[in-house]
Backbone:
């Protein structure tokens, strides 16, 4: 069974609370998502492997370490885009693939409308990005597509998760660890996370 890491860092807890506030502006929301993603990237990348690397300081030569395994970030459109700048700043060599999914409002099932991944996805540590893990349908579908294209090492990074979505992803993809800034109470009848923060894509891009 996969592991679920829920942040207990005070800075993340503070920023998630600001994010939930319905009075938070689009600009502030975007900034908070970016800041939370930077803080979360520390844990998500904790097990990246290192290789020796010779470096010459102004004083002497020494052997340092650099990241060995290459990373592929795969945001789920649209809201996953909110994580990309942050992760690109902490992992500059990462390649970025995109998966476009939307939830059919009636069935709540994910529909794929776009998929473009790095060709060497099989050799990379993939980090799937989506701020919201609600029913889990979008993340499960995205991970299905990525696995079909050869990816073997996948992590899922979300901001807010519902217990229902976490369970669903663990059942379908028991090899994929999940990283959350907060684990909420439940889903409502419309598939929204309670207390949640509303529609992440709309709040990120001002399409409320
Ligand atoms: C939201 C969110 C996730 C999905 C989560 O996207 O960004 O992708 O819902 O719900 P699920 O776990 O039940 O699948 P949405 O479908 O609203 O699309 P958007 O990002 O384009 O707004
Ligand atoms: N998608 C969102 O953006 N928010 C939710 O609460 C559930 C799905």
Residues:
């Amino acid at each position: 069974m996969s592991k679920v890491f829920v942040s207990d860092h005070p800075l993340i807890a503070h920023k998630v609370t600001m994010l939930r506030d319905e009075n938070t502006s689009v600009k502030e929301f975007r900034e908070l998502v970016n800041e939370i993603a930077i803080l979360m990237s520390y844990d998500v990348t904790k097990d990246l492997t290192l290789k020796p690397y010779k470096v010459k300081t102004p004083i002497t030569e020494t052997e340092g370490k650099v990241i060995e395994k290459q990373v592929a970030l795969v945001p789920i459109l649209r809201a996953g885009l909110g994580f990309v700048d942050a992760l690109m700043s902490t992992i500059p060599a990462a390649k970025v693939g995109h998966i476009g999914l939307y939830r059919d409002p009636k069935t709540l099932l994910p529909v794929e409308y776009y998929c473009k991944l790095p060709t060497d996805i099989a050799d990379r540590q993939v980090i799937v990005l989506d701020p919201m893990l609600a029913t889990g349908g979008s993340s499960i579908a995205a991970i299905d597509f990525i696995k079909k294209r050869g990816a073997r090492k996948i992590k899922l990074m979300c901001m807010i998760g519902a217990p229902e979505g976490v369970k669903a992803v663990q059942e379908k993809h028991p090899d994929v660890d999940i990283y959350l800034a907060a684990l909420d109470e439940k889903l409502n009848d419309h598939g929204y996370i309670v207390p949640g923060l509303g529609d992440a894509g709309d709040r990120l891009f001002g399409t409320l």
The pocket of PRP (ligand 1) is lined by residues 76-79, 102-103, 110, 130-139, 165, 191, 199-201 (CB under 6 Å). The radius of gyration is 17 Å. The domain at 4-205 is CATH 3.40.50.2020 (Rossmann fold). The mean pLDDT is 95.
